[in-house]
Amino acid sequence: MIIVIDAQANQDERAALLALVERVAGHRRPVATTCIGESEVIAIDQAALDTQALDAIRHQPAVAQILTPTTPYQLVSRHFKASPSRIVVGDARHCDPVIIGGEQAMPVIMAGPCAVESREQLLETARAVKEAGATVLRGGAFKPRTSPYQFQGLGIEGLRLLAEARQETGLPVITEVMEPEMVEVVADYADILQIGARNMQNFPLLQAVGRRGRGKAVMLKRGLSATIDEWLLAAEYIVAAGNPNVILCERGVRSFDPQTRNLLDLACVPLLHELTHLPVIVDPSHATGRRELVPTMARAGIAAGAEGLILEVHPDPNSALCDGRQSITPAELRTIVYEARLMVQIMQDADRLSQVA
Ligand code: PEP
Ligand code: MN
Question: Which protein residue has the closest C-alpha to ligand 1 atom 4?
Fold first, then answer.
């Protein structure tokens, strides 16, 4: 159940509403409000309320409206907000801001190495991906690796290098945060906080980026075997904790066939567009694990209607410390960027023509 707060309510009325909601539905925890579009809202579980509590909420002067979505996720649902969310990434004082979602004309292309390996590697890649037409730089400073013996990332030093690359190129940066305790530090450097597939249901981390992510956009990757509902409920955690700027990223799910690293679920893109107002990014690199499949699946992601792509790019993929097998070169990226733009134009023309026909 979504409670829309009356914008005209005074401090006392607001405080009374929050105290009541906390008492009857807060499970002894503070309740957060979130601003979505023009509305300030609180979402709670209606099933937890008896009729008396529900009535008491309805009669609060600070309540403008009560909505009851029929899905388990509420604030991220398209039923609650029909228009696609538009997320502005990057602060104009530090980089060239980028718009993701909404009525954006062109898909956003995020590109860069799997991991920040060194100053030379990152700066060289950052310049090359910018040259190739990418508008967001990716790079992992904290790496969730399957084996404890693999390269774990440069940590804070990696964050500093990303900030340096941003300053030089003007590209906003996306990087992964793995622990709740590190959210503020990563948010000090990054423009988009990435939650990796392995952390999609790390609920303390989701709440931390929601509450303490300094309002930075959060890209939530789909868990290795997460259902769409579990994924949207994970997004709901972030939004309900106060941060509406969530971007979903389909990066493939576990399948039975080891030929590809994962199975890219492209049907989820149009499906998510029906279920949620949040933008969707496709990651053909982690989805396939094979660089020769990346360009085709990048096209497929755009054709499915994704608001953007995230791609792993390395100047010398065979020497990459992480995910070299799926990394493409800057030259290959350039072709993908060109094709993505062309495809969007063709798709827009096709939409127009079919409306006339
Ligand atoms: C990554 O983007 O570098 C990454 C670790 O991806 P995922 O969480 O999707 O495996
Ligand atoms: Mn990777």
Answer: 196
Rounded to whole angstroms, the Cα distance separating 117 from 140 reads 9
221 lines ligand 1 (CB under 6 A): yes
The string of pLDDT tens digits covering residues 239-263 is 999 999 999 999 999 999 999 999 9
Our answer on whether the CB atom of 286 is closer than 6 Å to any ligand 1 atom is yes
Q: Is 216 in the pocket of ligand 1 (CB under 6 A)?
A: no
Tokens of 133: 């037409």
Q: Which residue has the tokens 């964050």?
A: 159
What distance in Å separates the CA atoms of residue 32 and residue 43, rounded to the nearest whole number? 9
Task: Tell the residue nearest (CA) to atom 5 of ligand 1.
Answer: 196
In angstroms, the CA 135 to CA 138 distance is 10
Atom of ligand 1 nearest to the CA of 283: 9
pTM reported for the whole predicted model:
0.96
> Tokens 């030379």 belong to which residue?
120
pLDDT at residue 207 is higher than 90 = yes
Q: How confident is the model at residue 97 (pLDDT cuts 50, 70, 90)?
A: very high
Please list the alpha-helical segments (H only) found in 170-253: 183-189, 203-212, 228-240
Looking from the CA of residue 144, the nearest atom of ligand 1 is 5
Distances (CA, A) of 247 to 8, 56, 84: 31, 35, 11
Say how far residue 102 (Cα) sits from the centre of its chain: 14
Cβ burial of 82 (10 Å; 0-12, 13-18, 19+) is: exposed
Phi, psi of 137 (to 5 degrees): -100, 130
